[in-house]
Write a structure and sequence with these properties.
21 helices, elongated, about 650 residues, alpha+beta, eight-stranded mixed beta sheet
Length: about 650
């Protein structure tokens, strides 16, 4: 049964994790502005005419001249931008990745910057801005000119008999479309064009409304001319196709991930470094003290005077059942600890227990009798008693939130008293996550962005690197905070469930703020965008780097020497409670085993989940329980006579 504070903690982490997830997706997919701004222009414009000239060269190079007549509709825009595809399909080797160089840019004949570019990471596009940052353009018609040179394989295709170029003339993101558009393809020297094809609208639409023609240059070369017969609306394409002889453009050497030994060694080095770092952190700071001998104890252990003084607790009092359970579980509290609190309160006359298996169990708070001597309560018992409502509480009918709140009160009080005895090692866990993730960020940037030609020369490269690193560090921090206690399989499964809940919550929260095209890509192949064009071995080494902190991280949490010694004493006390043959403990001078001893130590046995073994020591006496024996059993005698089962009560508290 999950506690309310734990659920709130997970929801809070999901809210914290969502921005990191958005940053990670933004790094992988590009700008996350609104749909219109992401695909088109930030302010409404109307493109009246767009004329494009493609000049092919033999060096796998294209010179593009674009002339646009654009009407500014609201007078708030500084200009426009063009999204240009830049990636090779299939990808070329990193050394032959496509490059873009802007040769000329102007607005109404006035030159503007040629280095005003933005690499849209993950979308394989580059935004080239034609704008004047110092002023907005007045409403009305404006002439834009853009001349750029693209080197590489973007747009080129290579077949068995001939090669070709496919070019999206207008793009598909103009909010109000393009009213008139044309394209002229100029062949390379000595490479005549053939197979003139064009698509306007959808590629599968019959009879594309494109006018095909030819034009002669002064040197005798024949150009292909394409003219759209109608407007190119938003999300539509005006794509031209022209073939040329095989060998005109040298075919590139394709990028094969299996041959990229540098990237494989980088992933292997990061994986080995992550493992070595985790082991060094554990060996130097995360190991538990060496275990000492376990000696059976016939009574609950007491706090050493120096430790009690440091914690502000009484040194001469034995540990309470809840404290025993909390310390034995590495400063965690589970349902048996809360059941032990109720049994201890009943033993001290502060609450009444009733019920039996099959009918349910109840807890009722009792007020102390005036003038009667009362046994002192521990701090966590006082907290639970104060939080327990008036009247009888049926455990099988009560709202689970009540038991969760009682457990939370008890856990918080115990944490205030003993929380410092277990080192959660949050700084070590953060270092174990953060350093490998920081290294992976640079490996991912090197592999993904340089493969797509977005190198450090691009103006926004540092910011995108920062976004990725922030996303990974926040993710690592959140995961490190959620690591389970060490060496506990049950808590490990619970932690995996929390991680799954966290990731699902953050994923769906992030989807609320992502544009539809990005959502489609995220749902289709998220891992391919994080690490594209990688072999199974490279991906395993890359993501294995993040696995070591998950596996070794819980081991970095360690006990203090004081907690280790107390746990040794608690283990010795547990040996006494579950000893099958009591005569074997005669050398310890144990107390006489009567029902009074059974009643006195029953809350401790329940705290250590040894109530059945403890009852087995008194099997004959409990079987002969009568009115006389019930009086000897003290507070538990009447309950046992009425069919009360301590183990059944413990199950009712945890159900």
């Amino acid at each position: 049964m999950k506690s309310i504070p734990s659920a709130k903690f997970i929801v809070s982490l999901a809210i914290l994790f969502a921005p990191a997830f958005i940053l990670l997706v933004e790094h992988s997919y590009g700008s996350l502005r609104g749909e219109d701004a992401w695909l088109g222009q930030e302010h409404p414009v109307q493109v009246h005419a767009m004329d494009v000239v493609l000049q092919l060269h033999r060096e796998r190079r294209v010179t593009v001249t674009e002339r646009l007549q654009v009407e500014m509709l609201d007078g708030r825009s500084h200009g426009i931008y063009r999204l240009l595809p830049l990636a090779a399909q299939p990808p070329a080797r990193k050394a032959e990745a496509p490059l873009l160089r802007v040769l000329e840019a102007s607005i109404d004949g006035v030159p503007c910057r040629t280095d005003d570019l933005k690499a849209i990471f993950g979308t394989q596009n580059v935004a080239v801005f034609l704008r004047d940052r110092s002023r907005t353009l007045s409403p009305g018609m404006h002439a834009f000119t853009l001349v750029y040179e693209m080197t590489g394989t973007a747009g080129f295709g290579f077949g068995r008999d001939d090669d070709w170029i496919d070019w999206n003339v207008t793009g598909s993101g103009w909010g109000n479309g393009v009213l008139a558009s044309s394209c002229t393809v100029v062949p390379a020297e000595g490479a005549p064009l053939s197979r003139q094809v064009a698509f306007h609208g959808d590629r599968d639409s019959p009879a594309p409304p494109v006018e095909l023609g030819e034009a002669k240059l002064a040197d005798g070369r024949t150009c292909f001319v394409y003219r759209a017969r109608g407007p190119v609306n938003k999300y539509q394409h005006f794509t031209v196709h022209a073939s040329f002889p095989k060998g005109t453009v040298p075919e590139p050497a394709l990028y094969r991930p299996g041959e990229d030994a540098d990237f494989t060694w980088q992933c292997a080095g990061a994986c080995a470094f992550s493992l070595a770092l985790c082991l060094v952190l554990w060996l130097c700071w995360g190991r538990d003290p060496k275990p000492g001998p376990i000696v059976p104890l016939c009574a609950p252990p007491r706090l050493p005077k120096d430790l009690a003084g440091r914690l502000g607790l009484e040194a001469d009092r034995p540990l309470s059942p809840a404290q025993l359970h909390y310390l034995a579980g590495d400063c965690t509290l589970e349902s048996p600890g809360l059941a032990a609190v109720f049994l201890s309160l009943a033993a001290k006359g502060r609450c009444r227990l009733a019920g039996k298996s099959g009918e349910g169990y109840s807890v009722e708070r009792l007020e102390p009798e005036a003038g009667a001597a009362q046994e002192a309560l521990s701090r966590e018992e006082e907290a639970v008693l104060n939080a327990l409502p008036e009247g009888k509480v049926m455990l099988n009918e009560v709202d689970p939130r009540l038991l969760n709140s009682l457990k939370a009160e008890c856990r918080w009080t115990l944490g205030q008293d003993f929380g410092g005895l277990f080192r959660t090692a949050r700084l070590l866990r953060f270092a174990g996550f953060a350093v490998p993730l920081f290294l992976l960020a640079f490996i991912q940037l090197s592999h993904t962005q340089l493969l797509r030609c977005f190198g450090p020369a691009w103006p926004d490269y540092p910011w995108n690197a920062v976004k990725l690193i922030i996303a990974l560090l926040v993710s690592g921090t959140v995961l490190s905070l959620m690591l389970p206690r060490q060496n506990v399989v049950g808590r490990g499964w619970k932690w995996l469930g929390r991680i799954a809940l966290l990731l699902c919550g953050a994923f769906f929260m992030a989807l609320l703020f992502l544009p539809k095209p990005v959502v489609d890509d995220v749902l289709s192949s998220p891992l391919k965008c994080i690490l594209p064009d990688a072999t199974a071995l490279q991906a395993a080494l890359f993501f294995g780097t993040m696995l070591w902190p998950v596996l070794v991280g819980p081991l970095m949490q360690s006990k203090t020497r004081e907690l280790a010694r107390l746990q040794e004493q608690i283990a010795g006390f547990a040996l006494y409670l579950k000893a099958a043959e009591a005569p074997g403990l005669s050398a310890l001078n144990p107390p006489s085993e009567d029902l009074a001893l059974y009643a006195r130590l029953l809350p401790y046995a329940c705290a250590l989940e040894l109530e059945k073994a403890w009852a087995g020591r008194f099997e004959r006496q409990l079987a002969d329980l009568g009115n006389r024996a019930a009086g000897q059993a003290g507070w538990i005698g009447g309950l046992l006579g009425a069919g009360f089962s301590p183990s059944g009560f413990a199950r009712a508290v945890s159900s």
